[in-house]
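Researcher: Going back to the complex we discussed earlier. I've cleaned up the inputs and rechecked each line, so this should be the final set. Can you rerun the prediction on the complete assembly and write out the structure?
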Amino acid sequence: MSRAVQFELRLAERMSRLGTETAFEVLNRARALERQGKEIIHLEIGEPDFDTPANIVNAGVDALHAGWTHYGPSAGLPELRDTIAKEVSRTRGVEVTPDEVVVVPGGKPIIFFSILALVDEGDEVIYPNPGFPIYESMVRYIGGHAVPVRLPEERDFALDVDELSHLISDRTRLIIINSPQNPTGGVLSKRDLEQIAEAIGDRNIFVLSDEIYSRLIFDGKHHSIMSLPGFKERTILLDGFSKTYAMTGWRMGYGVMRSDLASHVARLMTNSNSCTASFTQVAGVEALRGDQSSVEHMRSEFQRRRDVFVTSLNKIRGFSCRMPKGAFYVFPNITATGWKSKPLADALLEEAGVACLSGTSFGEFGEGYLRFSIANSMENLSRALEKIEKWIQKNVNH
Ligand SMILES: Cc1ncc(COP(=O)(O)O)c(C=O)c1O
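Model: Rerun complete. Updated structure for the full complex:
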């Protein structure tokens, strides 16, 4: 006779320390509201609304027909690693060789693999706050100590180097920086990077430099800490295809790091994914070597939307917003509305029909802000602004 037995789910303790990316949760809630018949404008998710450029799609399709459907080397196809090495050498002004490149499924695995490879339990990792939530999540998951460094609005969301200097200790193993930045749109200037480099000095600390938005800059030029003297050996550069070439669903990114570390990161690939999809990598070669006009088209379109969205947002009562210098996010200060970030983001979703993220989804120093992704059509952005304004007029007093 069978007896109904309830087996308790006994998760590993570390699972209690694993965070998440709220964007996906808000997207699910927004979709549920849509199923109830509500109109929602999606400004929560950080992905280009453009399709992957046709030359890249064609290269991927041709690769499938040509039989690029098998396992490949864990660190990536030699032709792609070579192409990336040349691209990074050219754009960052440092000599990079193919054995210093590891291709992975998206930029995200480079975050996880760097932390797995370098950080022991109890080691400290300094990370930007507000910042991409996966940094803190991964550090805490493996038992590291996540140390936030504040990105102050008064400094246009560049990192406060004095604070960074105070946070560096004998236990610091890794410092994570991100420019152009998610969620603030802040960009680190060459001077900022030099000051960060000075603060680190000749300590044996690695820098994980997340440059996934490197081609999405509106003012000035992209700079990498990897280009500074003495930093090539201590930098893991993260970049990829998701944002630059509107390839989020293809899952392809890369890390550039000294070759001895690269071989360990490749071992982590062997243990987890085996390799990045081969036909995707063939398309990646075309993305980097082919016509780049679509990249410039998307960049200038994001800039146009940024200008309109920020100007209009600043006219809404209680909102005050700096012009982001890069990426496709807008991060207004909403303290003058009298609302906290999370309740305001919830109310805008449920009552105004605009999905955005609370600044606190990016860490405690995100309180007082909201994040809007402007990777949506101008028409939808205008509709969102109207809906927000209407809701604010009803719910926020003079
Ligand atoms: C700062 C930052 N780093 C990394 C990633 C991950 O990119 P991918 O989709 O290529 O894994 C994102 C995506 O939102 C991001 O905003």
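Model: Worth noting: The first strand starts at residue 41 and ends at 42.
Researcher: Good, that matches what I expected from the previous run.
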